From TrEMBL:
It comes from Bradyrhizobium jicamae. CDD domains: CBS_pair_SF. Residues 13-68, 85-141 form the CBS domain. SMART domains: CBS (SM00116). Keywords: CBS domain. It holds the Pfam family CBS. PROSITE patterns: CBS. This is Transcriptional regulator. The keyword rRNA-binding does not apply.
Length: 141
């Protein structure tokens, strides 16, 4: 179990994550989330990560209040990733310890986060990656 303390993101992350462009529509995002088993995608503009869009963000765009009345469905589905994404997102580097990732996941109740190195997307790390590392370390492999 103590070997987990030395584990770093680079050894457990997804190295070639799927990304979406800032202008991808909500309809296209819904299709992606239905097709792929991902909880979130980095949103890129000019090869820079400008936000993260998650299933939660998509669902939140369908919540309406008295102050925010429901638009027509077709209009809603024309919103873009940039419209619904989280622009201020938590990320880690390739050398970040998995103990720190675990802490961020638990404290912020997030499922995955981008791995940024030299201001470029290097990968994604998810709860399942951390759990897999915990399992391997607890079995001594």
């Amino acid at each position: 179990m103590y070997s987990f303390l030395e584990q770093i993101v680079a050894d457990h992350m997804i190295r070639t994550p799927k990304v979406v462009t800032h202008d991808l529509t909500l309809r296209e995002l819904c299709d992606l989330f239905e097709r792929d088993d991902f909880n979130a995608y980095p949103v890129e503009e000019h090869s820079q990560v400008i936000g993260v869009v998650s299933k939660f963000d998509v669902m939140a765009s369908f919540v309406f209040t008295r102050a925010r009345i429901m638009p027509r469905h077709d209009d809603l589905m024309k919103l873009t990733a940039m419209d619904v994404m989280t622009p201020e997102f938590i990320y880690v580097g390739t050398e970040t310890k998995l103990t720190r990732v675990l802490e961020l996941i638990v404290n912020h109740r997030i499922r995955s986060m981008p791995v940024i190195e030299r201001e470029q997307l290097a990968g994604m790390i998810a709860r399942s990656d951390v759990l897999r590392a915990l399992q391997r370390c607890s079995h001594g492999t």
